[in-house]
Specification:
The chain has a six-stranded mixed beta sheet, sandwiched between helices. Strands 1-12-13 form a three-stranded antiparallel beta sheet, with no helix packed on it. Strands 3-11 form a two-stranded antiparallel sheet. It is of the alpha/beta class. Helix 2 runs parallel beside helix 7. It has one domain. It binds 2-acetamido-2-deoxy-beta-D-glucopyranose (3 copies). One 2-acetamido-2-deoxy-beta-D-glucopyranose binds next to loops. Belongs to the EXORDIUM family. It comes from Acacia crassicarpa (northern wattle). Pfam families: Phi_1 (PF04674). It is found in: Secreted, Extracellular space, Apoplast.
């Protein structure tokens, strides 16, 4: 495998992803979600939005971004990720996702590693100066094989799925508002409100009136059937980009390999902004620009606009940028508020 800049990348117009994001966010009414990437006209923005500004070191860097701390809690205690597998999941799909989560704290993985990626997240602190925890562990899991709330979920029914999981008669998920995260993963035959058109995943917290507790959660969907070109890019390519071959995914499952980066995005944001009152840019907490939003589409040095940056080729031709315990993954970078740019463990120049 080698550092590769010679792969046929999506042509990158000179642009600034960050300024575009502000534009995007001023046009959208969604909170805390990974948007389909690359953007298309039907997301209410398009490639020509990416053609102004060119003075940055690289796209994910800007002195205009004022990521601020809004005094709320961040996840400083050991983080436990409780997973809900909604719908039909294959054993191997679960293994890939479990290994990704386990890799976050696997500090001895080969560099550049997922654990190295999480080190940027650990730079964030709360009012007391406590850093985000370096310990992220898999918690209990719940299978919701029979689609307890149907094959089309709304933002509110997502919370009902979590409620069902914590109140189940057999093996309920533990209730852990202090350091538990609830990760709802929907199989490829499940539609979730705004999936594909404006989000690939989102995070928020549950409402006591609905669920009984305030629990930080994220939803990420398997887009393999519904919209891989939107939510599993670059392992699938949307129709509006002709003549472009998808990259080979590192674990042989386009939908799940595409979910990995979305899960990483949501976990990084949950850790730094679990109750939507801690780390975000922008004035309005209902349109927060969070640490992963600022770096969406950036996977390596030089990334930004439509160019994902320098990533690596595995011997089998798969594209990745970080090592887990045994597997390889492609995970987007996150914002470093000390350096004021997006960083990742595979950076060439930091
Ligand atoms: C893309 O944006 C440009 C400029 O903002 C606009 O003129 C054009 O019509 C847009 N295209 C689509 C497909 O929305
Ligand atoms: C904790 O955060 C501070 C401030 O960002 C940073 O300087 C320090 O390196 C962080 N510690 C760890 C262990 O990441
Ligand atoms: C947190 O995790 C670390 C290692 O991951 C472990 O050594 C420590 O005992 C844990 N602390 C608590 C309070 O569970």
């Amino acid at each position: 495998m080698c550092q590769s800049s010679s792969l046929p990348r999506f042509p990158a117009p000179p642009s600034t992803a960050v300024l575009s994001l502000i534009l995007i966010l001023s046009l959208t009414t969604l909170v805390a979600g990974w948007r389909p990437w690359p953007p298309s006209g039907n997301n209410r923005f398009n490639l020509s939005d990416y053609t102004y500004g060119d003075s940055k070191k690289y796209e994910g860097s800007s002195e205009f971004i004022k990521l601020k701390y809004h005094m709320g809690p961040v996840l400083t205690s050991n983080i436990t990720v409780h997973t809900i597998w909604y719908g039909r999941w294959e054993r191997n799909q679960k293994k890939i996702i479990r290994e990704f989560i386990n890799s976050i704290s696997a500090v001895h993985s080969k560099s550049p590693s997922i654990a190295g990626w999480w080190r940027t997240v650990q730079l964030y602190t709360d009012q007391t100066g406590s850093n985000i925890s370096n310990s992220v562990q898999l918690g209990q899991e719940k299978n919701d094989r029979f689609y307890s709330h149907g094959k089309s979920l709304t933002r509110l029914s997502v919370q009902s799925v979590i409620k069902s999981a914590i109140t189940a008669r057999t093996k309920p998920l533990p209730i852990n508002p202090r350091s538990g995260l609830y990760l709802l993963l929907t199989s490829e035959d499940v539609f979730v409100q705004d999936f594909c058109t404006s989000v690939c995943g989102f995070h928020y917290f549950t409402f006591p009136s609905l669920v009984g507790y305030t629990l930080p959660y994220a939803w990420v969907g398997n887009s393999a059937k519904l919209c891989p070109g939107q939510c599993a890019y670059p392992f699938a390519v949307p129709a509006f980009i002709p003549n472009r071959k998808p990259f080979k995914s590192p674990n042989g499952d386009v939908g799940v390999d595409g979910m990995i980066s979305v899960i990483g995005h949501e976990l990084a944001e949950l850790a730094t902004n679990p109750l939507a009152n801690a780390w975000y840019a922008g004035q309005d907490p209902s349109f927060p620009v969070e640490i992963a939003d600022l770096c969406e589409g950036i996977y390596g040095t030089g990334g930004g606009g439509a160019y994902m940056g320098q990533v690596m080729d595995a011997r089998d031709g798969a594209t990745y940028n970080m090592n887990g315990i045994r597997r390889r993954f492609l995970v987007q970078w996150v914002w470093n508020h000390i350096l004021n740019y997006c960083t990742g463990p595979n950076a060439l120049d930091q």
